[in-house]
Amino acid sequence: GLGVGIADQTKELHSLAREGFVVIGVDNVGHGVRRCVDFETRFSRDNPEFEANILDAVEETIDEVPRIINAAIDTGLTDGSRLGVCGISMGGFIAYGAPLADRRIEAATPILGSPRWKLDRASSPHRHVDRFYPVALLAQNAGRDANVPAADARALHAALQPSYADAPDRLAYVEFEDAEHFMPEGQWDRLWHNVVRWLIRFVG
Questions:
Q1: 131 neighbors 98 (Cβ within 8 angstroms)
Q2: End-to-end distance of the chain based on CA atoms, in angstroms?
Q3: In this structure, which of 33, 82, 131, 166 has its CB flanked by the most CB atoms within 10 Å?
Q4: Closest-CA residue to 26 (of 52, 53, 8)
Q5: DSSP structure class, residue 112
Q6: What is the pTM of this model?
């Protein structure tokens, strides 16, 4: 998420590792241990370039995904099969784009993200409906989310249904209707349970 680094997601990373996954946490470009020196101004909502800066960081992180996978293969962490990706909020945007950037990814679970960039860019995943299948795609959004409204994720999943007609179990959308962007613990636990079960099912 915006302003969040790997250290803020250790609970989620460890929960996947306990299920037997090799888990690689990635700081978004400009975040975490590689936080940019002008973070507060670059990602300030008062900055007229705020949306462009967000999308630049999203797209640059997506572009890194194939290199991260290659590095994991080269170091023996994986043989390159059974790969999944998960991201939260800003990371959810990345999780929509990552399987389009690297076809080795077999499952994606964007959380509180959107497949539609706020600026008109050709890279916006909602423009590439024909490229998602057969990725096992589970998206989860909050119905009352003012930061990342659920409508665009909902619309993408409706548009994807025809291409998943032969394997409808590989496409799922869950919306927590009364939830906001920052969910209470109980809702978050249910959401994360869905993530773990999905990844176990399709790449575990």
A1: no
A2: 25
A3: 82
A4: 8
A5: S
A6: 0.95
